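Recap slide: Carbon-monoxide dehydrogenase large subunit, sequence and predicted structure.
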Amino acid sequence: MTSTIEPEVGKSRRRKEDERLITGRTRWTDNLTLPGMLHLAVLRSPFAHAKIVSIDVTEAKSAPGVVAVFTGKDLDPEGAIGMPCAWPVTPDMKSPRRPILASDTVNFAGEGVAVVVARTSAEAHDALEMIDVDYDELPVVLGLENALAEGAPLVHEELGTNQNAVWVFDSADAGTGSSVEDAISNSEVVLKRRFRQQRLVPAFMEPRACVVDPTGNQLVMWSATQVPHILKTMTAATLGLPEHKVRVIAPDVGGGFGGKIAVLPEEMMATLIARRLGKPVKWNESRSETMVAAHHGRDQIQDLTITANRDGTVTGLKVELLADMGAYLGLVGPGVPILGAFMFNAIYKFPAYHFACTNVFTNTTLTDAYRGAGRPEATFGIERMMDELAVELGMDPMEIREKNWIKHEEFPFTTVAGLTYDSGNYEAATAKAKQLFDYDGLRREQKERRESGDPVQLGIGISTFTEMCGLAPSRVLGSLDYAAGGWEHAEIRVLPTGKIEVITGASAHGQGHETAWSQIVADKLGVPFEDIEVIHGDTQSSHKGMDTYGSRSLVVGGIAVVNAADKVLAKAKPIAAHLMECAEDDLEFSAGKFSVKGTDSSTSIQDIAWAVFSAHNLPDGVEPSLDSSDTFDPENFSFPHGTHLCAAEVDTETGRVRLRSYVCVDDVGVAVNPLIVEGQVHGGLAQGIAQALFEEAVHDEGGTLTTGTFADYLLPSAADLPSFTTDRTETPSTTNPLGAKGVGEAGTIASTPAVVNAVVDAVRHFGVNDIEMPLTPMRVWHAIQHGSAAAGGLGSEAGGGLGSIDATGGAQ
């Protein structure tokens, strides 16, 4: 029987969750009020490195409304509690204890040293000013190379070094390729460049917050987190609590971008205080606290060597990274640059590859996952290098990419980094992007502007990228020493009236899971979209999950939903056959009904649901339930890809950059909801472009964050960005039944190098081959006036160190 119902998968439905989110008629952490609830405020160190000589809380304790004041020694007198790091990337990785509150030494400006508990938030914050802390300042170390220099001040004296870990991959040793050193010795072209990935602040809409209620049989924590299941397990492990007595709820969460993947010292602090006082407590940070105390992203120096023959064929790639961990290790921070190790080779057929990363401690806020987590850094490096190689060889930058990329007929393709890309078509995405962009026409215009000496020059930037997402096969994560797996769980409950509840371990914070999951289940079970409720974010109702990050929700969590739906149908089939008095083999399922082949006899899922509920007439030995669950562990990553093209106009007299047009054609496999895909791409583009042109976390020489507000840390508005032209090609993934590939990070990963390549392309004839991000007008103007070495010294083999220029033109 052929279905006449329009499929839900592929339909651009508006998100069913948006009405409550946009109108604010919802529940988020800071609007929770519990009986007898107290409020917490954290006193943070103004110094980046100092001994704590004494803390006097006497006056604060007597302040109006104050119930208690705690120091680190009050909460953890034995100094036994340390925040977890789930990714020990090497056996000898150095992992200093990160306390809940600093007791002896502060290691970054913004580290908590005391907490006030009061009846109102205002009273708690007022009392902070009454705490007297005597600090003995210590030498501060900032900058990756400075931290590794002989005689540098040590962030953690007991470690004897600022080096955290060294992780190496070599294709010759791994058996995935030949020796890079041989390629360097034998190739006709050897090109070296140094690039800087500046430090960024994940600027999520909702600051971090938690509420902890210790009353009753369970300790309940509400948190603005991406990872309620991980938070539950880590809270129990960190504080020695029985896990079955801990419940974590992530209500509607206002964005994350990786910035809410952490397990926070403030969450542990709130739990200890709530248990000690026997009352609910709330901690909600200000935006300025977010800027200094929430983890940061990126912050790498990339030394890259690419080798090739004169015809443009690449022969090898060598990557040497320095990655700033900050003062402590985040939950997955040490592994973030390691994720990039598998993506520097990108879509290209390198026969030889070497990657080495040195993680480094500095007196700064720790770094951890930020949208893309290692893959944007890798994509930036290789896409900038492909442009530099094209210039060296006198080739069009698109031509050199086409010469070296994996052809569509070569999939599945195992890369020099050891990953197997299952599907893709870089030719199709690029052809469509070039057509939408008018690539040849813009190149002609660029030539005309150069020849006429136009003060506004035109540059064209390219980024042909792929990424690995859908983190991840558990065995692969295990081989990389990650503490957990990459599976995801889902359940489907079929209610007596035929309505459906979907319980998912993937915890949304703005991605549209409720809509997409409803579309998937509507098609699988043939029930109306409106009859499906998606439940997530509560470890009691959704008892099992690995949460949301790494573009894994759909391609891991969504597949668990698909598999659970298949199990519902498998349970329903013998019941349908019994009700219609036929053999199971005589049945077919379509549009929500089991039908006897060749007849008009049928019964719906709703009829079967009622029959199961009543249980009056079921086959012998069949349980009265259609409810089903599945735990899906992917067999491979998924590999979305795309071609992003940017046209940038640069005013050579002022350094001002204007994005004239931006075209991207992404291949994310099968799109469940194209409207959601479009939104994810647009948001990702905004963040990637922001890194290229606007955002940078800057510290002064004492380690104080000088960009600690949105007045100083520049985020783009809609007026700063062009109207994007987006489109898609589709090569379904072969490793999951949906054919989906993931889209949450694609725009961010691809867009940064496209924009930087465009700006450098516009001013290259002035002797510029790199400008350090963000490409502020002052930095661009300075590069034009003095060449790239003076604009930061990062562009050429002969260029100097890291003496960059800040947004106002002053030396950093």
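The radius of gyration is 28 Å.
DSSP finds 22 helices and 28 strands in the chain.
(End of recap.)
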